[in-house]
Specification:
alpha+beta; elongated; 9 helices; four-stranded antiparallel beta sheet; 432 residues
Length: 432
C-alpha cells in the first residue's frame, strides 16, 4: 500500500490509522493544534514605537536632556569679566588731636566712592570658555548614551514581551487541545486499553504544563512591567513582528570607534585638557583697575584717584605648578581609561558575537531537527495507538513532549532575537 501524501503544513497525521469515536478526534485535534504557526499578537506598541518612545520619554533620557540644557545655559557666562565692585569709604578721619571727629576741618578727610573692575588674563578667559564648551560636549554625548541605553533596554523588553506572549499563547493552545485526551485517559484504563498506573502519567504531565504556564504568565507580566518602565505606556502589549535576527559582524567591528560610549571618553578627555589649560592660566597675571572720587570740604577741593593692581604668581612651584600637574595627570588618566574602554568593548563584542552564533545554531537545530522529530514521534504514537500497540498515555506523553519542544524552540528563538537587537543597538549604528 503506498504511503499517503500529506498536503498540509500541519504535523503528519494523514498516515495514522482511523481511530473511532471521540478519542480519535481528540488525538487529531491535538496534533493539528501543536503545529507551528505564526503568532497573531495584538497590542499598542510595535518594536519601532517602543524604541522611539524610550529614546524620547525615558526618565534617564529626559534627565540628561536637562543636564545639556543647563550646560548650554551656563556657557554664555564663561570667560566674561567679573562684575565690577563698588566701594564706599570715609578716609583720613581724625580720631585724636584737636580735630578729632571733625569731618571737614582736616584737608585729608574725605568721603570716597570708587569702582573697581577685575580683568583676568586672556589665557584664563579662553580656558574658561573651553571648559564651558567641553561641558556642553560631555552633556551632549551623555544624552546620546542615555538615549541609546534606553533604546537597548526597550528593545530587549519588547522582545521579551513578544516571545512571552507567543509562548503563553502556544501553551494555552496546547492545554486546550490536550484537554479531551486527559478526559479520555480514565476511560482508556477502564476499557483495558491502558494499565491502571497509566492513568497517573497524564495527571503528572498536565500538572507540569500548568506549572509551566504559571511561569510564563509571570514572565509576561515582568516583561510588560519592564517595557512600561522605558516607554511610559501603562499597559504595553507587543504588536507586529520582531526584527530579523541577522547581524553584520564586519560592520559592527568597523564602527566601534563611532559608538557614543567611546565618544563619551573623548569628550571627557577634551574637558580634562580644558581644565589643564585653566590651571596653566593661573601662571598668567590677573589685573584689576580702580577709579575713585574723593569728596572733601569745599575749601580744600575734591580728589580723583586712578589705580591698578596685578596678581604676581611669584611662587608657581608651590601654588600653580602642583595644580597643573594634577590636572595633567587627570587628562592622561582619562585617555588611558578610554583605551581600556575601547579594548573592553571590542572584547565584549567578540564574546557576544560568539554566543550569538552558538545560540543561532542551537535555535536552527531545534527548529529543523528537534521539532520535526517530536512531531514525527507524536504521529508514530498516534499510529501505534490506532493499531492497538500503544496506550493513550504514550500518546499524551508524546504530545506533551511535542509541546515542550515547541516551547523550547520559541525559547531559543527568543534568545537569538533578543541577543540580535541588543548587539545591534549596543555596538552598531542606531538604526534598529
Amino acid at each position: 500500500m503506498p504511503a499517503p501524501t500529506c498536503r498540509s503544513a500541519r504535523p503528519p497525521v494523514c498516515g495514522a490509522p482511523r481511530i473511532p469515536g471521540r478519542r480519535r478526534l481528540a488525538v487529531v485535534a491535538a496534533v493539528a493544534i501543536l503545529a507551528p504557526a505564526t503568532p497573531g499578537a495584538a497590542g499598542p506598541l510595535t518594536y519601532a514605537d517602543a524604541l522611539e518612545r524610550a529614546a524620547l520619554d525615558a526618565p534617564d533620557v529626559r534627565a540628561r536632556g536637562l543636564a545639556l540644557e543647563g550646560a548650554r545655559a551656563a556657557a554664555p557666562a564663561a570667560g566674561r569679566l567679573p562684575d565690577p565692585e563698588l566701594s564706599l569709604a570715609v578716609e583720613n578721619l581724625p580720631v585724636s588731636g584737636p580735630m578729632a571727629g571733625s569731618f571737614g576741618r582736616d584737608e585729608m578727610t574725605m568721603l570716597r566712592v570708587g569702582v573697581m573692575q577685575a580683568v583676568p588674563s586672556p589665557a584664563r578667559r579662553r580656558a574658561e570658555r573651553s571648559v564651558a564648551a567641553a561641558d556642553i560636549g560631555v552633556a551632549d554625548i551623555q544624552l546620546e548614551v542615555a538615549a541609546r541605553e534606553a533604546r537597548v533596554a526597550a528593545a530587549v523588553a519588547w522582545t521579551e514581551l513578544h516571545f512571552a506572549q507567543r509562548r503563553r499563547e502556544a501553551l494555552d493552545e496546547v492545554l486546550s487541545s490536550l484537554e479531551p485526551l486527559w478526559e479520555a485517559a480514565p476511560s482508556s484504563v477502564a476499557s483495558g486499553g491502558d494499565r491502571p498506573a497509566g492513568a497517573l502519567s497524564p495527571i503528572r504531565l498536565r500538572a507540569a504544563l500548568q506549572d509551566q504556564r504559571s511561569a510564563l504568565v509571570a514572565a509576561e507580566a515582568g516583561a510588560r512591567a519592564e517595557l512600561a518602565r522605558w516607554t511610559g505606556e501603562p499597559d504595553p502589549w507587543s504588536e507586529g513582528l520582531p526584527p530579523e535576527a541577522m547581524l553584520d559582524e564586519a560592520g559592527l567591528r568597523n564602527g566601534l570607534e563611532r559608538l557614543p560610549a567611546l565618544r563619551a571618553w573623548a569628550a571627557a578627555a577634551r574637558r580634562a585638557d580644558a581644565e589643564t589649560d585653566l590651571a596653566r592660566a593661573g601662571r598668567q597675571p590677573d589685573w584689576s583697575f580702580e577709579l575713585a572720587y574723593g569728596r572733601r570740604d569745599p575749601m580744600y577741593g575734591d580728589m580723583l584717584s586712578v589705580g591698578a593692581r596685578v596678581r604676581l604668581p611669584l611662587f608657581a612651584d608651590q601654588r600653580q605648578n602642583p595644580v597643573i600637574a594634577a590636572r595633567s595627570a587627570e587628562a592622561r588618566r582619562v585617555r588611558v581609561e578610554h583605551e581600556g574602554a575601547a579594548r573592553s568593548l571590542r572584547a565584549a563584542l567578540e564574546a557576544d558575537l560568539a554566543d550569538h552564533r552558538m545560540h543561532h545554531e542551537q535555535w536552527r537545530r531545534a527548529r529543523d531537527v528537534l521539532l520535526p522529530a517530536a512531531r514525527d514521534r507524536a504521529g508514530l504514537e498516534t499510529a501505534s495507538y490506532g493499531a492497538g500497540r500503544a496506550g493513550l498515555g504514550e500518546v499524551i506523553e508524546a504530545f506533551t513532549a511535542l509541546a515542550e519542544t515547541r516551547l523550547e524552540t520559541l525559547d531559543r528563538e527568543a534568545l537569538v532575537v533578543r541577543e540580535s537587537v541588543r548587539i545591534a543597538l549596543t555596538y552598531g549604528e542606531d538604526r534598529q
